[in-house]
Write a structure and sequence with these properties.
The complex is a heterotrimer of chains A (about 650), B (about 150) and C (about 180). By secondary structure, chain A is of the alpha+beta class. Chain A has 18 helices and eleven strands. Among the domains of chain A are: about 160 residues; about 100 residues, no CATH class; about 100 residues, no CATH class. In chain A, the strands form two sheets. In chain A, strands 3, 4, 5, 6, 7 and 8 form a six-stranded antiparallel sheet that branches. In chain B, strands 2-4-5-7-6 form a five-stranded mixed beta barrel. In chain B, strand 6 and strand 7 form a beta hairpin. Helix content of chain C is about 45%, strand content about 15%. Chain C has a six-stranded mixed sheet. The chains are: A alpha+beta (about 650), B alpha+beta (about 150), C alpha/beta (about 180). At the A-B interface, helix 12, strand 1, helix 13, strand 8 and strand 10 of A face helix 1, strand 1, strand 2 and helix 3 of B. Strand 1 of chain A pairs antiparallel with strand 1 of chain B.
Chain lengths: ~650, ~150, ~180
């Protein structure tokens, strides 16, 4: 009975969101503020309804109600509670429920906005959000009902796959969804701006935290997925340029461009229609990503349950959600604003941000082509192809390199025409450090041209961020006193941006280490053998056979030591699950600041020894460390207090 | 820079960057496309050809009782139940690699065998032919009830 | 409200619609392909019996041999996957009994041991012409069995013509199976 209530709640929200959308369209031209209050009330109701429905589904998972198809397929009574809960969004139907939950929550937050934002703009934003909610509810109810019952409930569920019970995988989807839904908010802002014709600095200031939230969440979500692939898949890689990965990476790139262009809009009121376009495209790319992942069009290492009829539905949503705003964009965007005749020099923040946007969107384009080209070929001559990392290394990497170059300099450029006094001094300092770094790099054994270029870019950015941070925050000028006011000063001096840029530098350093200086040792080793890795030695001590709760394990014990001082014990394992007839490899990873020792046990026995695979991945954890810094920087910058006075321009209201 | 020239400069810049990007993309596409075949498709397209110059991907099921692992070197047979291709692979296999599992092997086709550089398996069970997936899941389900 | 449409502003729209068009085209083809394979594959219907050998349990004579489906050639017969530990199998027992009056039924004990199985057959009756043992569940995988109980009907040419997952209830028996037998 309880699941039916959840289903009914969904239907009620579906019907009411339809009525609400109609209400919004009818009252579009009205000047009555009561309409806004009604829309705000709607937002609260939708949030309450959806969260109740979601809670009911969650409850069914917690009590393991196997009369529900979704619970049977994705849960098991013996699972730990945390994986029972994550089982909810580990599948298509449940993940859509989570999607709508976040959507209604964000809409509710927008509806409580008490700033100077005009009531017309706000009601249009709420209206667009409601239409998005309506389409997703239709999608859920018509193609993927989470409350579907089984006629004869089984005794237990089917979701006891050991591989999928993993903290990395449990939190990857919800965080990524925060990002996708966050982009839906900036989308609604853009569409509302096109409808009302109102776009100004208040708009920019209101949209910016949402873009930042979305961007930070996407960063974290992508990093988490990549980390999972690294430690779980057991071949040491962390990014595969796989369509599913690209699907989340393209919205991230768009969000990055948007984050920077909205900064231009906020301070200088230029790039207005471009920002609107990016905001629309950010959400379109999220939908395109969902489409690629769920429709089964592309083969990929990360496959999800796919179903073409769902693909059609998402394609329809994608067409309407992007087509209508783009039509609006084509007829309205030229009238949105008067291009201010602002003068700026070649060496100004404006130029730097323009170039940033130009390169980021070109980079997105290369990925889009790489992802879709196989589809085009399939459609036109039926040939199935895939495009691997080599393509992206040859296109994406060279396009991003200039972005890194400019990223180090841009923060200390001035707005407008005034050239920063210390500009040449600072540049010389950065160049000096980078040349020094490049020389050191070239002396490392195994350094190639590409490794030196990549490493130097990282050093370039490191020194740039450092000098920016020191010169901009003027640490000695900070008023001492309460920690909070001290922190606030730091935040208002672009602390978030510095940390995010530092994150990119750390990330690049990680890539340099992992891509160019990794060592791999392969061979058959027996108990007592010693493997040398640099100045360390790894001794093969023993092999143990043990039984786990539902598996048998063959575990090797290695000790890693330096000059006879024990560093750590590594225990790579091979598990055999007799019931599933599955073998899994549990790599032993010793993660250290300067690199990971990654050890995989193959098969063998006491007579002939065991085949052992050993990787040493220098700086690899910096990759995810860098991503975390980026996300942290984003989150910090949300708390930034913007002092600049808004410059209100309102034109062409309907 | 005066606004008048600015527009010109920006447009020129856009055209230059897009031009370079197009060039990069075209070059990369020419060299780095990997064709995907099932064993049957490969037979149909290449007949009895023994070598293929470019890298290819072969997708299908791992034939039962065909996997031999020795010294980290694996050989196995990919089948689509109508044709078979022998695969040599020197590297670590994904955990979900097992007999009857749907997988993709990427590599060069030499003397009618695939020398694989990468073997991919899906981390979602649904990729397997649905009936096998269901049966396997079912095995997991009933484990508590079986008396061994 | 004024309109000032520039070609450059139409560009995103045009690009977008051409991408959508191609995606739609591809999706149409994929859907077509999947439909073809899914229905045949997932149910084995229209295909011949999987070629996996099944060891026979014989409680009277202790002989080790495999079930020979050729014994039933030119006959419609049923294959019923069951297990002594499976509750719904007890429910369907009388219906299988009924079915065995018309056609031969081969039982395949899924993940079961001989002793429990014997006890089950003593308690609930033995409607089977032959009983096979699928200790490891490999036969079930080959047959694409969803779970126990599950029943297949095989026609005179050894082609699977019907499959029912779950307990065989009277109404299923009446509406689905009886018409096929006639």
């Amino acid at each position: 009975m309880i699941p039916e209530i959840g289903h009914i709640l969904l239907i009620i929200t579906f019907v009411s969101s339809f009525i609400q959308s109609i209400f919004w369209i009818i009252t579009l031209g009205s000047r009555n503020t009561v309409n806004l209050i009604i829309l705000q009330k709607f937002a609260v109701t939708n949030f309450i309804l959806i969260s109740s429905s979601f809670s009911i589904l969650l409850y069914s998972f917690i009590i393991s109600d196997f009369s529900l198809l979704i619970v049977t397929n994705n849960s098991h009574s013996l699972k730990p509670l945390i994986y029972k809960i994550s089982g909810l969004w580990g599948n298509h139907e449940g993940s859509l429920m989570l999607w709508t939950l976040i959507l209604t929550f964000f809409t509710y937050l927008i509806s409580r906005n008490k700033s100077q934002i005009s009531f017309k703009l706000l009601s249009s934003i709420l209206g667009v959000q409601t239409i998005i909610l309506f389409s997703f509810l239709a999608f859920i109810l018509f193609t993927s009902n989470p409350f579907e019952r089984l006629e004869t409930p089984p005794i237990d569920g089917k979701g006891l796959n050991p591989l999928l019970q993993d903290p990395g995988l449990a939190f990857h989807p919800p965080i990524l969804y925060l990002g996708y839904v966050g982009l839906s908010v900036s989308f609604s802002f853009a569409v509302a701006a096109l409808i009302t014709g109102e776009i100004n600095q208040i708009w920019a200031r209101q949209i910016r935290p949402w873009i930042t939230i979305a961007w930070s969440a996407l960063t974290l979500g992508i990093a988490l997925g990549s980390w999972w692939a690294y430690y779980e898949l057991g071949w040491g890689g962390w990014w595969f340029w796989d369509p599913v990965e690209n699907a989340s990476f393209m919205p991230w790139l768009i969000a990055t461009a948007l984050l920077h262009s909205v900064r231009l809009l906020e301070t200088r009121l230029i790039l207005v229609s471009w920002t609107v376009l990016l905001a629309i495209l950010g959400f379109s790319f999220s939908l395109l990503g969902t489409f690629i992942v769920r429709s089964g069009l592309l083969t990929s290492v990360h496959a999800f349950a796919t179903d073409p009829s769902r693909g059609i539905f998402i394609l329809i949503i994608l067409t309407i959600a992007t087509g209508v705003p783009l039509i609006l964009y084509a007829i309205r965007s030229s009238d949105l604003y008067t291009e201010k005749k602002i003068e700026f020099s070649v060496f100004s923040k404006e130029t730097a941000l323009l170039i940033n946007n130009l390169f980021l969107s070109t980079a997105t384009l290369t990925i889009l082509i790489g992802t879709l080209y196989p589809l085009f070929l399939d459609a036109f001559n039926g040939e199935k192809i895939s495009i691997g990392p080599a393509y992206y290394n040859a296109t994406f990497a060279p396009i991003m390199a200039p972005v890194i170059l400019i990223m180090a300099i841009a923060p200390f450029l001035n707005w407008g025409t005034k050239i920063n006094n210390n500009f040449s001094k600072k540049i010389l300092f950065i160049i000096f450090i980078t040349v020094l770094g490049a020389l050191v790099l070239s002396m490392i054994k195994g350094a190639t041209l590409f490794s030196i270029v990549c490493g130097s870019l990282s050093i370039w950015l490191f020194s740039g961020v450092l000098i920016n941070f020191i010169s901009q925050t003027k640490l000695n000028n900070l008023k001492k006193g309460e920690f909070r006011s001290w922190l606030n000063q730091l935040i208002n001096n672009n602390l978030g941006m510095h940390i995010a840029h530092l994150g990119v530098a750390v990330f690049l350093a990680g890539i340099t280490g992992e891509q160019f200086f990794k060592t791999e040792i392969n061979g058959r080793k027996n108990i007592g053998d010693i493997i040398k890795i640099g100045d360390r030695s790894l001794k093969f001590d023993d092999v143990k056979f043990e039984s786990g709760p539902n598996y048998k394990s063959e575990m090797a014990i290695f000790t890693l030591s330096k000059n006879n001082n024990l560093i750590d014990t590594l225990k790579p394992e091979k598990r055999f699950y007799p019931v599933q007839q599955t073998q899994t490899t549990e790599a032993a990873i010793l993660s250290e600041f300067f690199g990971d020792t990654y050890l995989v046990l193959g098969d063998g026995n006491k007579e002939i020894g065991w085949s052992v695979r050993l990787y040493y991945n220098p700086l690899v954890s910096w990759i995810w460390g860098g991503a975390c810094l980026m996300a942290l920087g984003g989150i910090i910058s949300i708390f930034r207090n913007r002092k600049t006075k808004p410059n209100i321009i309102i034109r062409n209201t309907i | 820079m005066k606004p008048k020239y600015r527009r010109l400069v920006i447009i020129t810049l856009i055209i230059i960057i897009l031009g370079i990007a197009t060039q990069l993309i075209l070059m990369a596409l020419k060299d780095n496309i990997i064709y995907f075949y099932s064993p049957n498709d490969l037979k149909l397209k290449y007949g009895e050809t023994k070598n293929i110059k470019n890298k290819i991907r072969i997708g299908g099921l791992v034939l039962e009782d065909s996997v031999i692992i020795e010294n980290n070197k694996t050989t196995f047979i990919i089948t689509d139940r109508s044709h078979q291709i022998k695969v040599y692979f020197d590297g670590s296999l994904p955990d979900l690699f097992r007999e009857g599992q749907g997988i993709i092997a990427e590599g060069t086709f030499i003397k009618n065998n695939l020398i694989a550089s990468q073997v991919l398996a899906k981390h979602d069970e649904n990729y397997m032919p649905p009936e096998v997936a269901e049966a396997l899941k079912k095995n997991g389900v009933w484990q508590g009830d079986i008396k061994q | 409200m004024s309109y000032n449409v520039k070609i450059i502003k139409m560009l995103p729209l045009i690009l977008f619609f051409s991408i959508v068009l191609v995606l739609g085209l591809v999706l149409y083809q994929v859907k077509y392909d999947l439909k073809d394979t899914k229905e045949l594959k997932s149910q084995l219907i229209g295909k011949s019996i999987p070629l996996i050998s099944i060891p026979e349990i014989n409680y009277d004579k202790k002989i080790n041999k495999n079930i020979n489906f050729n014994d039933f050639k030119n006959n419609i017969f049923a294959v019923n996957f069951f297990a002594s530990w499976c509750a719904p199998c007890r429910i369907e027992a009388p219906v299988v009994e009924e079915l065995s009056k018309f056609i031969p039924v081969i039982g395949i004990a899924y993940k079961d041991n001989a002793e429990d199985n014997k006890k089950f057959l003593n308690d609930y009756g033995n409607p089977y012409d032959k009983i096979g043992l699928d200790n490891l569940g490999k036969v079930a995988i080959e047959w694409g069995v969803y779970g126990v109980p599950e029943t297949f009907l095989i026609n005179r040419n050894g082609i699977i013509i019907y499959r029912h997952a779950g307990p065989l209830l009277y109404d299923v028996y009446k509406t689905d199976i009886l018409p096929l037998l006639e």
